[in-house]
Amino acid sequence: MSNMALRNAALDILTRVGDGGGYSHLLINQAIEKRGLSNRDTSLLTEIVYGTIQRKHTLDFYITPFVQKKSKLKPWVLWLLYMSVYQMVYLERVPDHAVINEAVEISKKRGHKGIVSMVNGILRNVQRKGLPSLDSIEDPVERLAVETSHPLWLVKRWIDMYGVDETKSMCHQNLQRPTMSVRINPMKATRERVIDRLQQDGFDCEPSLLSPQGILIFKGNIVNHALFQQGFVTIQDESSMLVGEMMDLKADMKVLDACSAPGGKATHIAEKLNDTGEVFAYDLHEKKVKLVRDKAEQLGLENITAKQADGRNLPSMHEENTFDRILLDAPCSGLGVVRGKPDIKYSKTTDDILALSNIQGELLDAVSSLLKENGKLVYSTCTVDHEENEKRIQQFLEDHPEYEVDQAFFDELPEEARDLPGITEWGLQLFPQDFDTDGFFLTRLKKA
Ligand SMILES: C[S@@+](CC[C@H](N)C(=O)[O-])C[C@H]1O[C@@H](n2cnc3c(N)ncnc32)[C@H](O)[C@@H]1O
């Protein structure tokens, strides 16, 4: 693909994301598949699209002094400016003059002469005069928001919840690319053998501290490797692996995964049961249930039954006191995964958080009756917010005196995770800066 075509594709994706026409990770995947992009093109397209979205607020601060009537610009022109300045500031291997020439060529194809000369003028001014200094922002919270490209309301909310230092680290960590991690399938190979094989094939990888099944991959494309294609490993963030580790699973157990798609944790649970017992995996969306079935099949697991259901209706489908273990990996605002899905940090609102917290409460209430006495229920989210995590659990326990936090959970955490700042009486909030994982909350409750 030519450089021009690649940047045009990037601009299409950015403009669609900006219009609310899709999520960047899905649009990038579609573009890669549709155009059959090479590894080099895939990596540059991903870098430009993610990088531009990830830094959007900072880029806006940078271009504002150079643009008159910014609010009147067509969305594609604004995204072209963001995308170009992103490359000029953050991509050292792309020379500024090449970025400007390509932006001008793209403008010629999409707009009239006035737009072409405006884009050319703005980018040449940025190049000649340099960027405005972030030091000009006096308020330290606003500065943090602009510097790390987070909405101001979110930074303020996190500071109120977790303090300035934790929020600062989290905002900076959210700008880093997530480290790839995979989970080995213990029914097919040991972690040592998989690491040996990957290293022989030129991968830079090491064992995870959070899961004995986890491997961190710093260099190497696992998706193209036979071990991935043959179901020896599956891609999963380490924080999610911790859920399977903390479920206290034993052979022959009957386990409910109420919100299971795409099946990362359901398959982990099934592996831990060593293909004994039974995992009942549900999801609200039929289309997504297929992903759970596909993943189970890819990993060669036969102890998962995946079906469509609203988790809130499960009491009408199963008897009370049926399951030994329940996982509620709840739908959430996703503010812990903004490194990999940067669109999320701009699109979520406090209303979304409150609405999700209500649904989480309804799901918890619904599944709670299905747990056997002395059974254990793990609740998790990939978000960083009290409302959906600690307060959600606190409220549930107030409404359900038959439940309590299982204190053994804290002792069973991996040693490295026992003193984290996110540990409270309600569970563990993992911050992305703790282990370079997603921001993630998990806790384990037991039914007396
Ligand atoms: C955090 S994701 C689950 C990820 C999954 N546990 C995994 O590890 O691959 C939350 C899931 O909940 C599903 N969901 C949302 N509302 C639901 C409901 N009322 N009942 C059941 N599933 C629901 C979503 O479709 C989504 O797939």
From TrEMBL:
Localization (cell): Cytoplasm
Residue intervals of the SAM-dependent MTase RsmB/NOP-type domain: 170-448
GO cellular component, one term: cytoplasm
Protein's UniProt keywords contain S-adenosyl-L-methionine: yes
EC number: 2.1.1.176
Location, primary (coarse class): cytoplasm
Positions of the catalytic residues: 382
UniProt KW keywords: Cytoplasm, Methyltransferase, RNA-binding, rRNA processing, S-adenosyl-L-methionine, Transferase
GO biological process: regulation of DNA-templated transcription
Recorded catalytic activity of this chain's protein: cytidine(967) in 16S rRNA + S-adenosyl-L-methionine = 5-methylcytidine(967) in 16S rRNA + S-adenosyl-L-homocysteine + H(+)
Gene3D superfamilies given in the database record: NusB-like, Sun protein, domain 3, Vaccinia Virus protein VP39
Binding, S-adenosyl-L-methionine: 259-265, 283, 310, 329
A Pfam cross-reference name: Methyltr_RsmB-F
InterPro entries membership: MeTrfase_RsmB-F_NOP2_cat, MeTrfase_RsmB-F_NOP2_dom, NusB-like_sf, NusB_RsmB_TIM44, RCMT, rRNA_ssu_MeTfrase_B, RsmB-like_ferredoxin, RsmB/NOL1/NOP2-like_CS
Molecular function terms, GO-annotated: RNA binding; rRNA methyltransferase activity
Function summary: Specifically methylates the cytosine at position 967 (m5C967) of 16S rRNA.
Stated family: Belongs to the class I-like SAM-binding methyltransferase superfamily. RsmB/NOP family.
Protein name: 16S rRNA (cytosine(967)-C(5))-methyltransferase
